[in-house]
Amino acid sequence: MKKETRVTHPPEIALPDGNKPVVSPIYRSVKFTYPTIEGSLTAEAREHGFDYTRDSNPTTRQMELLVAELQDRDDAIAVSSGMASIWLALLGNLETGDRVVIFLESYRPNRVAVRRFLPKLGIAFTMLSVHDHAAIERAFAADDTKLLLFEAPTNPMLQVPDIETIVAMAKRHGVVTVLDNTFGGLHNHGQFEIDFFVHSLTKYAGGHGDVLGGAVIADKRRIKEIRPLAVNMGATMDPGVAYLVSRGLKTYYLRHRQHSANALAIAEFLSRQPEVEKVLYPGLPADPGHALAHKQMKDFGGVVTFDLKADQAKTWAFIDALRLFATTSSLGSTDSLVAPVKLYLGSDLSAEEQGRAGIKDSTVRLAVGVEHVEDLIADLTQALASTFR
């Protein structure tokens, strides 16, 4: 069955005989019961049955199996937010004395988790550039390096890592690979030997900006190993959220194609504007990461980042002048959003680190929605005119 069909015909979840929810579906019930205690202890009940929603829930389980299949894996754990999925992947694979490798170009909350909070648990980090393969190899060769946390493409500067090369280096040195694939999407990067995928289901999966959730996706063995931690830490996804994510996934491919088409058209438009210094979008043939992204991905997503020929005041004035792009730092929903990168996504970095990451006062990130692209371009046109006239 093609994946475009599978999202409308998801895997069926059949409750074992006699396993009934205390509260009717959507399975909002926290508790599930069997007619007898013996019935709850059978092999089928222990493997496929339900007892308490913090452990598992039929509505959530169906969504877990669907996102795992879309990512070309066979199991997943749903949690309450994208950052909860990051923390589950980290804590499920690390202990005191270990070291994490992360890239300078990473999502700000991921950097904060690794640089601010993991050291409190006795876990060290090395932060490198995603393009410095020699330094990455050296870091992987260190005895205490146990895990790599990275993104493809990176947020917000849309750098494209060479996944095949980086994962091969990690495999040589026994380093666990965790890919935050939120920007790439559930339909990208599954062909690589990545140990764990994490996603903010808040973004493209939910798709409408009205749910908060995350998932860790891997093979059954790896998920089985970290599931006890997920249950115990209590970052449980609400079944109502799981239902809304599942509903959003029915239009996932349609929406993602439109996000990508709109983003490419806007990137091409911005590239022609005299007020724009540089445009970053892997779908542009002139983008430094285009060839690699074209090899690794089926499409290029809905985020466009660019530098204006402006100072901070004029950059913020441009953002404030936009009428269809709401100023906020999320992405992947039907409506278009805009963020001042240095303020929203680079505030944890020093000035020197911001420079190395390419973040300027004039850097702007657009999370392009699914509105008619002519309206979005008209909005950008009027904001440029009103700011630079």
Topology:
Elements: H1 3-6, E1 20-21, E2 32-33, H2 37-40, H3 43-48, H4 58-70, E3 75-79, H5 82-91, E4 99-103, H6 108-117, E5 124-128, H7 133-141, E6 145-151, H8 163-172, E7 176-180, E8 196-200, E9 214-218, H9 220-233, H10 239-249, H11 252-271, E10 276-280, H12 290-296, E11 303-308, H13 312-321, E12 326-327, E13 337-340, H14 341-345, H15 351-357, E14 363-367, H16 373-388
Parallel strand pairs: 4-5, 4-6, 6-7, 7-8, 12-13
Antiparallel strand pairs: 1-2, 3-9, 8-9, 10-11, 11-14, 13-14
Helix pairs in contact: 4-10, 7-8, 13-16
Mean pLDDT: 96
SS-based class: alpha/beta
Task: Tell me the number of helical segments per DSSP (H or I, 4 or more residues long).
Answer: 16
Topology, number of strands:
14
Q: Let me know the largest β-sheet.
A: 7 strands, mixed
- Determine the strand fraction and express it as a percent band: 15-25%
* Order of adjacent strands in the largest pleated sheet: 3-9-8-7-6-4-5
**Alpha-carbon distance between the two ends:** 54 Å
Unreliably modeled segments: none
C-alpha geometry? globular
